[in-house]
Amino acid sequence: MFLSYEAFRAAADAISKAIVEACIEAGRRPGEVQLLPVTKTQPAAAADYVARYGLPAVGENRVQEAIEKRAQTQASVRWELIGHLQSNKARIAAQQFDRIQSVDRAKLLDPLDRAAAELGKTLPVLLQVNAGRDPAKFGAELEDAPQLLEQALGRPHLRVEGLMTIAPLSSDPEVARRTFAALRTLRDELAARFGVPLSELSMGMTSDFRVAIAEGSTTVRVGTALFGARAALGQ
Ligand SMILES: *Cc1c(COP(=O)(O)O)cnc(C)c1O
Predict the structure, then answer these.
(1) For residue 112, which phi and psi values (nearest 5 degrees)?
(2) Could you give the CA distance from residue 209 to residue 195 in angstroms, rounded to a whole number?
(3) Does residue 193 fall inside a structural domain?
(4) What is the pLDDT of residue 57?
């Protein structure tokens, strides 16, 4: 059975508090870090909970799953894609999502830009970078990020708001820390070189959001700590 709203609220309160504490510890203003609840594999009611709690957006990692859920809820939240996007789904993703965090290769740029143009919108995107050099993760290689950014900046209907990464799975918190520090350093270099703010750093999940905040995260994507464990399929 899906958790009750009260259970969700208690979890969201706890995570919100932990985010504030991590900000203070890092000498940052708590308002600088957004909590993005990750609703993948959860029922559409998860989006209702998020809206009722007053958070502005949810993260989903599959296009089709998000479409099905959006059809089942009136929740006034923004929907963000945080999972790998196949090129043949770029068009529908541009239509269905309010932001795409997982733009990881140049091949996606044209279909996304074209779809956004046809929809008469500017699509906010983040570039996903494999900052931890994890063979099991998607994301542009660190070396390829400048070219990907340059190409993305040339697409008039895409707005590059920043970078996203997923740290390698590891029991050593230093692995995540190094990954997040690498993404922030890359962001600083790219922002200076291309003269764009790239103010969003989407990094940190249930197991590593505190470290991510210490390293400059502006959006933490949290699923398990809010909704409980997922069935293996959705991991
Ligand atoms: C599932 C997922 C999350 C949330 O992970 P938790 O460990 O459940 O907090 C965050 N980011 C991405 C890209 C995900 O796929």
Answers:
(1) -70, -45
(2) 28
(3) yes
(4) 98
pLDDT in tens, 136-171: 999 999 999 999 999 999 999 999 999 999 999 998
Q: How far is the CA of 39 from the centre of ligand 1 (A)?
A: 9
Please state, as a whole number, how many other Cβ atoms lie within 10 Å of the Cβ of residue 4. Answer: 10
Domain that holds residue 89: 5-223
Task: State the pLDDT at residue 234.
Answer: 44
In a domain, 28, yes or no: yes
Tokens representing residue 190 in the block:
């790219």
Tokens found for residue 169: 């799975």
What residues flank ligand 1, with Cβ below 6 Å? 38, 40, 61, 82-83, 166, 205-207, 221-225
The answer, as to whether pTM is greater than 0.90, is yes
* CATH number of the domain that residue 180 is part of: 3.20.20.10
Mutate to test the pocket of ligand 1, among 102, 205, 209 (most ligand atoms within 8 A of CB): 205
